[in-house]
Design brief:
243 residues, 9 helices, five-stranded mixed beta sheet, alpha+beta
Length: 243
Amino acid sequence: MWLSLLPWGFVLLGLLPLWLFPRQASLYPGLVFLLAALMLAAAASLYARVPLGPQARFFWVLGLGLMSSAMAVAASRDLAQIPEDLAVVASVASLMGACAFLMGLFFLLRREVPSLPPATQMGFRHEGGVLSHTALQALAPSLEALSAVRPVTLLLLHTRADQPGAELVQYLRQPDMVFQLGPGQFLIVLQGSNLEGAQVVFRRIRQNLAIRAYGVLPLQGISVQQALAQLEGELQHYYLTQH
């Protein structure tokens, strides 16, 4: 919570000269800079909720917050009669903001990115650890954002129609997710696993459960819906060629 409020504190700090120095007669272009500061602060508050690592997220929010402070100082400069030396603060804030962005990028490239939290912490109900198709649609944007910085692999399984999904959970790791798309149809989302890791998981499941067909695809550069459509197309092709 405090991280999403940090940018607004920077904006208020940049607008402090408005209460300390006489006002200017003209409102332009001060109001334009003020609007830019508010929009940057709003964007920074949204970045505080992005599923990134804590260090990368903190520095990106800090960078946007410092940029919003620079815009707020620029607005104060045009709306109030402040000394020129004080206006230099905007340049310093911009420089510090750029450094914060670079630090955030550094931690991002180090893949300091955690897995998505458990579904129960995100407000989704599950039955024996298995989530619904509706939950998949709700989590799709977060999974797509996560796949941009960390490997995410989808494993689509067709089993017997009465297969309990809870039996699949015991063969997965803690961050992996299972979604039931229909009777005997399950989508497993493997976080932090590539194709080789997905094959290991599949072999472990196949040794214990009856699998009719399966498809595996890394979630990279496409949406969850597109990946799911491609996997289902591959399984349909498999059924057509087998009969």
